[in-house]
């Protein structure tokens, strides 16, 4: 007799922010279905996103290693099928996840894929005759997958309670004591340049907030961004760059101690949401109406310009057709700073 299939297996392989957005949905699922086995398939680097969800198993995807290519996907299927899942929630819906889901489908396992609303997003981002209306939040699209599998999930769309973690010793030496100072995180970078506030403008935001007595921590990026962060922090005791000095788990611990995060439409916003930290987010080519505003974050804390051309892209991967990048270049630093101060004073 074959073992009874018992749990739900979730696919969400990348990108970082999108994977982070699945965590509040899975946390709600676990609260509402405490006894149903739940597993996640994603990249090993993203395991910290799910650390606070009880009774969740994690299966690491290695797309450049043992799970590379079609043979690797089939190998992944064999590994996962050994866990005997009763259903597949494909929250990614890309080529790799569809092929993997197909293997399960042929074994009689129900597979439901997330609906990405591509046509609605085209209407929202097209050059002419835009339909500028808010689309369903991506977290609700994730939740709808579970609903179709027979497990409705109700989302609160509220930030979780703040629960400051112990900052690792390696970072504690950099951060110092919090005392009575407000801590602000800044995540100024993104994968695509059309989502990034110009460096000279962001530097002024950081400097002016530091001059007002706030402690600033700069997050995110690779070697090039590490150099920029170090330049901004040089000679500024109230500005600390964390880039290249911490892993993801350590960064999340520090983020949990912040009072506020300033972020682009990027992963920094979603990491803050996981830790219950409010975000002042800056939007350029993209728009919160696409459904990617951080879970529990407020439209009142969004900084953006109302322009006829916005949004011109869902992901910020298309060059500015106007050629002047007005959505970011014309956004005053003073607006960002005042939004931050107002939010901190009202917390």
From TrEMBL:
<dbReference type="GO" id="GO:0009244">
    <property type="term" value="P:lipopolysaccharide core region biosynthetic process"/>
</dbReference>
<protein>
    <submittedName>
        <fullName>ADP-heptose:LPS heptosyltransferase</fullName>
    </submittedName>
</protein>
<keyword id="KW-0328">Glycosyltransferase</keyword>
<dbReference type="InterPro" id="IPR002201">
    <property type="entry name" value="Glyco_trans_9"/>
</dbReference>
<dbReference type="GO" id="GO:0008713">
    <property type="term" value="F:ADP-heptose-lipopolysaccharide heptosyltransferase activity"/>
</dbReference>
<keyword id="KW-0808">Transferase</keyword>
<dbReference type="Pfam" id="PF01075">
    <property type="entry name" value="Glyco_transf_9"/>
</dbReference>
<dbReference type="InterPro" id="IPR051199">
    <property type="entry name" value="LPS_LOS_Heptosyltrfase"/>
</dbReference>
<dbReference type="GO" id="GO:0005829">
    <property type="term" value="C:cytosol"/>
</dbReference>
């Amino acid at each position: 007799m074959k073992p009874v299939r018992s749990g739900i297996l979730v696919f969400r392989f990348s990108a970082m922010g999108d994977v982070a957005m699945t965590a509040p949905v899975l946390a709600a699922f676990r609260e509402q279905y405490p006894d149903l086995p739940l597993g996640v398939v994603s990249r090993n680097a993203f395991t910290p996103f799910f650390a606070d969800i009880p009774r969740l198993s994690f299966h690491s995807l290695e797309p450049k290693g043992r799970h590379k290519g079609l043979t690797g996907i089939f190998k992944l299927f064999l590994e996962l099928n050994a866990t005997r899942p009763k259903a597949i929630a494909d929250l990614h819906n890309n080529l790799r996840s569809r092929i993997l889901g197909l293997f399960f489908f042929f074994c009689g396992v129900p597979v439901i894929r997330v609906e990405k609303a591509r046509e609605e997003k085209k209407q929202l981002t097209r050059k002419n005759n835009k339909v500028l209306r808010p689309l369903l939040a991506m977290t609700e699209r994730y939740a709808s997958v579970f609903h179709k599998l027979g497990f409705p999930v109700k989302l609160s769309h509220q930030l979780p309670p703040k629960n400051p973690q112990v900052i690792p010793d390696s970072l504690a030496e950099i951060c110092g004591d919090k005392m009575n100072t407000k801590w602000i995180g800044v995540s100024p970078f993104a994968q695509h340049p059309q989502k990034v506030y110009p460096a000279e403008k962001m530097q002024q935001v950081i400097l002016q907030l530091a001059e007002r007595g706030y402690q600033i921590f700069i997050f995110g990026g690779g070697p090039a961004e590490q150099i920029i962060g170090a330049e901004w922090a040089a000679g500024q005791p109230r500005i600390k760059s964390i880039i290249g000095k911490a892993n993801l788990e350590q960064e999340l611990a520090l983020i949990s101690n912040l009072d506020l995060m300033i972020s682009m439409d990027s992963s920094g916003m979603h990491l803050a949401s996981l830790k219950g930290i409010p975000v002042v987010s800056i939007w350029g080519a993209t728009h919160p109406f696409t459904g990617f505003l951080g879970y529990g974050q407020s439209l009142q804390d969004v900084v953006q310009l109302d322009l006829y051309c916005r949004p011109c892209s869902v992901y910020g991967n298309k060059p500015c057709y106007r050629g002047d990048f007005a959505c970011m270049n014309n956004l005053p630093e003073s607006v960002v700073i005042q939004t931050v101060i107002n939010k901190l004073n009202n917390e």
